[in-house]
Design goal:
Distance between the termini: 30 Å
Largest sheet: 5 strands, mixed
Strand order of the largest sheet: 2-1-5-3-4
CATH topology of the largest domain: Ubiquitin-like (UB roll)
Helix content: 10-25%
Number of domains: 3
CATH class of the largest domain: Alpha Beta
Number of helices: 4
Order of helices and strands: EEHEEEHHHEEEEEEE
Number of strands: 12
Length: 239
């Protein structure tokens, strides 16, 4: 007797900004696969080029998933191979807009001309006495609110989406340079690439994590507890 063929495969999904281990049903069509990969990579389905490789370092594709109607199993995908998702139009995807500067016109302005303008960040800071223009003498410092959220704690972030748990680990608690420097922020490393940064904001690093795994939220949105790691599972009804 022949061993039954597997109905699902565990594979690596790699894109310009993400890398994660996933499990997909071999009967899933390429079109449906693209919809799921958009949630993982941030690349819209119409801009995805998906190739199959033996490993991340293998540059020669074994197959190109170019027919949306065909199932994943048609292409002979096996366990622990790699699906590389190429963004064919990064200028319209969320992740691509953060890195693609080809559509941005270069604009140069002298320091003197910049200082004369009234619609700049510099002018705004001068009017509102922010940063180096603040009144330092005689100004009482704002009290720092104490937050009992230990670094390294497992947590869950409040979300409006039903049955969708944003879980991760607390990596930072304290004041930041963004948000006008007011109040306490909690830096979290998510278990999945559903965040907004890599632990740094506006050039200032607060903790280390992979791109799109980091996020900063206010303390009242964070619940501390023994939350296990949850993988994003896709049910048969979503295929």
């Amino acid at each position: 007797m022949h061993a039954p063929k597997p109905s699902a495969v565990s594979i690596w999904v790699v894109s310009p900004d993400t890398r994660s281990e996933r499990k997909f049903d071999l009967h899933l069509t390429v079109g449906s696969l693209k919809d799921k990969l958009e949630l993982i990579t941030g690349v819209p389905p119409q801009n995805q080029r998906i190739t199959v490789h033996n490993s991340d370092s293998d540059n020669d594709p074994l197959a190109v998933l170019d027919d949306d109607a065909k199932p994943l199993g048609f292409y002979g995908v096996r366990d622990w191979q790699t699906l590389k998702v190429t963004d064919l139009n990064p200028s319209v995807s969320f992740t691509g807009q953060l890195t693609d500067v080809s559509q941005v016109d270069k604009f140069e302005l002298s320091s003197d001309a910049y200082a004369q303008r009234q619609d700049t960040v510099l002018a705004y800071k001068q009017r509102n006495k922010i940063g180096r223009f603040s009144e330092k003498e005689g100004t009482a410092p704002k009290p720092v609110v104490e937050v009992n959220i230990p670094i390294g704690s497992r947590c869950e972030v409040e979300t409006a989406e039903e049955n969708f748990h944003k879980r991760g680990t607390v990596r930072f608690v304290g004041p930041t340079k963004f948000g006008n420097g007011e109040g306490i922020w909690v830096g979290i490393e998510y278990d999945e690439p559903i965040g907004k940064n890599d632990g740094s904001v506006q050039g200032e690093r607060y903790f280390e994590c992979q791109p799109n795994f980091g996020v900063f939220v206010r303390p009242d949105r964070v619940k501390i507890g023994d939350y296990p790691v949850e993988e994003i599972e896709f049910s048969d009804e979503e295929m």
